């Protein structure tokens, strides 16, 4: 899911559930913004009024429904881990050019910045966790797999491999904050990236 | 203080936990695992040491930082039991044929969100740390609108097919709603009324709920919020739903407020 697409019904309902002011005016504003979800929003407005008034039921942590939910969790987590393991080591580099550019757009950077991430020129220890999480989601991978990938030694261009007597790599790394300032990013892109460092 | 949430609302403002939740998160950070599980196992909300689900969810998300899988599973199970309890309350067997399917879908959707949070991070669960029960209500409504059509047919009532509501029905409806608003602070009445409303078919429940929120059925002003506009149906349809609902509510609460 990307921020460019219209939000899913679930996301709109979750946002509405968090509104402090559940007045008819707030409901009307949501319906104006998301007319396709008017019925669901009306249902939720009523639910939110009733939820605090319901009596508590009881369910054991060993209940069969909880067992099934646990199995769902395990299979979802395993599936996500397996998917990322399959692509380990080549998460960004494996992308075809069009998808590479699309990824840059989705995460709000230019291709120069993404190249520096791909080639591990940006020091992984300086990359904010929330940015890694964003990458993991956009790559349909996991945080641990992306972190492992970004932490490997920098890639060295073929043309540079034989030019130096020194061991290539470690000294070429730059901090995430420096990469923001040195990658020809526009002001808005820089601002959004710096927000990950808060 | 626990780390702040990162999800922002449509205006770019970060969501914030309730102050009491932040305080409780700090308080339980001092407990060992056994004591923590014991506290989270308390299900009675009126117990003075009950911990709300917002705190429990935070504890679950915090286990991403360590490898104590058995501890994570124990916390997960307690939270999912709470999710199931809320579903059992909200989704009545008298309303839907497929209640088990609906409840299982809600639990499954929530379990998948936790799996994504644990493996990919992200801020999708942040809202649940702010208003857990209400966020779960949002998930429930989303699932119900996708899986809920197998509703049971409810018994027919006298006025179901009469077209325009009669003046007597109108008066009864107004008396019922006026009286219910006055009595809404009475816990016994409130509990009975909520249970009765929960047993209504969803379209009738929504109309009654919106009326109790003070939203008019219709209105002349172009920008006015009305139930007919919200639900995209005619005023007559709304009135019919209201009348059917009130007939059932009066029957369910017979004697309490016959007018």
From TrEMBL, chain A:
Top-level taxon: Bacteria
Source organism of the structure: Hyphomicrobium facile
Protein name (database record): Uncharacterized protein
Automatic annotation (TrEMBL), chain B:
The protein's name in its UniProt record: RNA polymerase sigma factor, sigma-70 family
Domain of life: Bacteria
SUPFAM superfamilies: Sigma3 and sigma4 domains of RNA polymerase sigma factors
């Amino acid at each position: 899911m990307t921020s460019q697409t219209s939000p899913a019904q679930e996301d709109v309902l979750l946002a509405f559930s968090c509104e402090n002011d559940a007045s008819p005016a707030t409901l009307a504003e949501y319906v104006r913004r998301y007319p396709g979800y008017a019925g669901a929003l009306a249902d939720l407005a009523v639910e939110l009024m009733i939820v605090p008034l319901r009596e508590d039921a009881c369910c054991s942590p060993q209940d069969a429904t909880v067992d099934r939910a646990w199995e769902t969790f395990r299979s979802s987590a395993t599936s996500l881990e397996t998917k990322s393991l399959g692509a380990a080591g080549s998460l960004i580099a494996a992308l075809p050019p069009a998808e590479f550019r699309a990824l840059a757009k989705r995460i709000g950077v230019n291709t120069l910045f993404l190249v520096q991430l791909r080639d591990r020129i940006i020091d992984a220890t300086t990359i904010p966790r929330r940015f890694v999480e964003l990458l993991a989601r956009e790559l349909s991978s996991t945080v641990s797999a992306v972190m492992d990938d970004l932490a490997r030694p920098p890639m060295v261009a073929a043309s540079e491999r034989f030019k130096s007597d020194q061991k290539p790599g470690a000294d070429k790394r730059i901090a995430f904050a420096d990469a923001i300032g040195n990658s020809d990013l526009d002001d808005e892109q820089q601002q959004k990236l710096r927000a990950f460092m808060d | 203080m626990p780390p702040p949430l990162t999800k922002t609302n449509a205006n770019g403002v970060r969501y914030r936990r309730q102050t009491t939740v932040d305080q409780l998160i700090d308080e339980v950070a001092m407990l060992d695992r056994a004591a923590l599980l014991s506290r989270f196992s308390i299900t009675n909300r009126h117990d003075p040491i009950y911990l709300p689900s917002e705190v429990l969810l935070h504890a679950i998300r915090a286990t991403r930082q360590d490898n104590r899988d058995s501890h994570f599973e124990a916390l997960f199970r307690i939270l999912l039991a709470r999710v199931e309890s809320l579903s059992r309350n909200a989704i009545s067997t008298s309303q839907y044929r497929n209640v088990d399917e609906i409840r299982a879908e809600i639990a499954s959707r929530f379990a998948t969100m936790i799996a994504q949070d644990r493996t990919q991070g992200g801020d999708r669960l942040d809202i649940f740390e702010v208003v857990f029960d209400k966020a779960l209500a949002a998930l429930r409504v989303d699932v119900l609108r996708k899986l809920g059509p197998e509703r049971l047919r409810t018994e027919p009532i006298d006025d179901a097919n009469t077209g325009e509501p009669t003046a007597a029905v109108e008066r009864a409806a107004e008396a019922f709603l006026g009286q219910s608003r006055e009595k809404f602070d009475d816990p016994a009445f409130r509990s009975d009324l909520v249970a009765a409303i929960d047993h209504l078919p969803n379209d009738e429940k929504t109309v009654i709920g919106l009326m109790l929120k003070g939203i008019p059925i219709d209105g002349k002003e172009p920008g006015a919020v009305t139930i007919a506009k919200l639900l995209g149906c005619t005023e007559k349809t709304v009135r019919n739903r209201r009348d059917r609902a009130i007939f059932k509510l009066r029957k369910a609460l017979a004697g309490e407020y016959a007018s």
